[in-house]
Design goal:
Helices cover 28% and strands 20% of the residues. The protein is built from 3 helices and 4 strands; from the N terminus they run E-H-E-E-H-E-H. The chain has a 4-stranded antiparallel β-sheet.
Length: 157
């Protein structure tokens, strides 16, 4: 049975740089809290962290996975981690938090729909295009004839 709270899946990820006492029992307790919430925890990578710690403290990066609104996700993640740390009597301080977002590739799909013309009209249009494309100068390059018909409807009321 997987660990973690029941409920809807998360839609936001927040990376929190947390400072925890450098004692085995504190680090184990932090690991247990994060495992119970299904949050990955790791040591910071080289060059990833700009904050420094005092002697006796160590840094951990916790990926807090929450269900929340984008604008308040960081505050909600920090508050959740602080509450869990207080309830577990864990010596932990949040030093930095960053919302991690997936890069969205722009996608634009255009679907042009109109009334379907009768078969005889489509055949005559195809023949018209075939004759028009056959008349162009072969040295002038490729010619494409594109026709687009837009119908505007005015709605009153």
């Amino acid at each position: 049975m997987p660990a973690g709270p029941a409920g809807p899946p998360f839609n936001r990820r927040v990376h929190i740089v947390a400072e925890v006492l450098d004692r085995p029992e504190e680090l184990d307790l932090l690991q247990q809290v994060c495992d119970a919430m299904s949050w990955p925890i790791r040591e910071p990578l080289a060059g990833e962290i700009t904050v420094t710690t005092d002697a006796g403290w160590t840094l951990r990066v916790i990926e807090v996975r929450i269900r929340g609104v984008r604008e308040t996700a960081v505050e909600q993640a920090v508050a959740t981690l602080d509450t869990l740390a207080q309830n577990a009597e864990l010596s932990l301080h949040c030093r930095d938090a960053t919302l991690v977002e997936r890069i969205q590739r722009p996608q634009i799909e255009w679907h042009l729909r109109g009334r379907r013309k009768p078969l005889s009209r489509r055949i005559s249009h195809t023949l018209h295009l075939a004759t028009r494309t056959g008349e162009h100068d072969p040295h002038a390059g490729t010619v494409r004839l594109v026709r687009f018909r837009a119908v505007l409807r005015l709605l009153s009321g």
